[in-house]
Amino acid sequence: MSLSRFLIKRSLQGLFVIWGVITVVFGLRFISPGDPANVLLPPDVDPEVRAQVIAELGLNEPLYVQYWEFVSGIPFGDLGLSLVTRTPVSARVVAKLPATLELAVAATVVAVVIAIPLGVLSATRRHEPADYGATVFSLVGISTPNFWLGVMLILVLAVQLNLFPTSQRPIGLDGIALLLVGGDPGAAIRGFGTWLWHITLPAVTLGTYFTALITRLTRSGMLDQLGQTYVRASRAKGLPETLVRYKHALRNTLIPVITVIGLQLGTLIGGAVITEAVFAWPGLGTLIINSINARDWPVLQGSLIVVAVGFVLVNILVDALYAYVNPQVAYD
């Protein structure tokens, strides 16, 4: 199967997944407690005014009519209007999405940069202190809740040592790009340094579990590959040990690692809610929490749909990267 046919097939499958998510998210509104009209109106409002507001919001329409009106606008980017602010949901979600993507990508970079070398070191020095240290690090990283870790990092590194800020996102990558376009590299470098300074603690908090997971997966894969026949044959031919480890064994190990990285990147996009709340990071997680508290269902639905679309796209990209890492993997 060619790459184009594979992408078409996976895209069609992804559309069905997204449609399922849209349907489930739409149905959750009707089984969840709370009435959106109660958020907009005081308890002692006149019943006629209440009925008029419900009619204006379309909440009195049959379920199938509401579902069709909701679904039909999604392909055109119309996610409805916020019940609280009466502004387009798509605009609010798009405004918050870059911050979440920055945090997810930064956490992934932290995890990959630390985990893969640590996993290789642990596998090549099995039953040595380096291996035991990597194993302990993995167990601690997987066992540590990210909300507790975030609070501890703030207390120690931000409050006690004053090395990092406690919260906020002063400038995003989009702002740095504007500085570069404006022709002021010095300001762009300072802006990037400020952004890096603020994102370090949230990225470490969000990426710690991911780092531990990739470390254990890399170690397991490397141990399996180092025991294969082709590795012994490569050594028998006199190839340098570094070449055997990193070009041959590590490359084959990266296939499951790429899978987990792709899946976890999609998970990080939607799972950064607690981390964003701890560090007041203005992303989709903060928007989801605020919309839940305000019973703003259109904003919540739009945010979850965008997360689902991002998860599907990341999975398709990961599958397409298989053949690049290992040409023996076919697109079927």
Automatic annotation (TrEMBL):
<protein>
    <submittedName>
        <fullName>Dipeptide transport system permease protein DppB</fullName>
    </submittedName>
</protein>
<keyword id="KW-0472">Membrane</keyword>
<feature type="transmembrane region" description="Helical">
    <location>
        <begin position="195"/>
        <end position="215"/>
    </location>
</feature>
<dbReference type="Pfam" id="PF19300">
    <property type="entry name" value="BPD_transp_1_N"/>
</dbReference>
<dbReference type="InterPro" id="IPR000515">
    <property type="entry name" value="MetI-like"/>
</dbReference>
<keyword id="KW-1133">Transmembrane helix</keyword>
<feature type="domain" description="ABC transmembrane type-1">
    <location>
        <begin position="97"/>
        <end position="322"/>
    </location>
</feature>
<keyword id="KW-0813">Transport</keyword>
<feature type="transmembrane region" description="Helical">
    <location>
        <begin position="12"/>
        <end position="31"/>
    </location>
</feature>
<dbReference type="GO" id="GO:0005886">
    <property type="term" value="C:plasma membrane"/>
</dbReference>
<dbReference type="GO" id="GO:0071916">
    <property type="term" value="F:dipeptide transmembrane transporter activity"/>
</dbReference>
<dbReference type="InterPro" id="IPR045621">
    <property type="entry name" value="BPD_transp_1_N"/>
</dbReference>
<feature type="transmembrane region" description="Helical">
    <location>
        <begin position="132"/>
        <end position="159"/>
    </location>
</feature>
<dbReference type="InterPro" id="IPR035906">
    <property type="entry name" value="MetI-like_sf"/>
</dbReference>
<feature type="transmembrane region" description="Helical">
    <location>
        <begin position="254"/>
        <end position="279"/>
    </location>
</feature>
<feature type="transmembrane region" description="Helical">
    <location>
        <begin position="97"/>
        <end position="120"/>
    </location>
</feature>
<dbReference type="Pfam" id="PF00528">
    <property type="entry name" value="BPD_transp_1"/>
</dbReference>
<comment type="similarity">
    <text>Belongs to the binding-protein-dependent transport system permease family.</text>
</comment>
<keyword id="KW-0812">Transmembrane</keyword>
<feature type="transmembrane region" description="Helical">
    <location>
        <begin position="299"/>
        <end position="325"/>
    </location>
</feature>
<keyword id="KW-1003">Cell membrane</keyword>
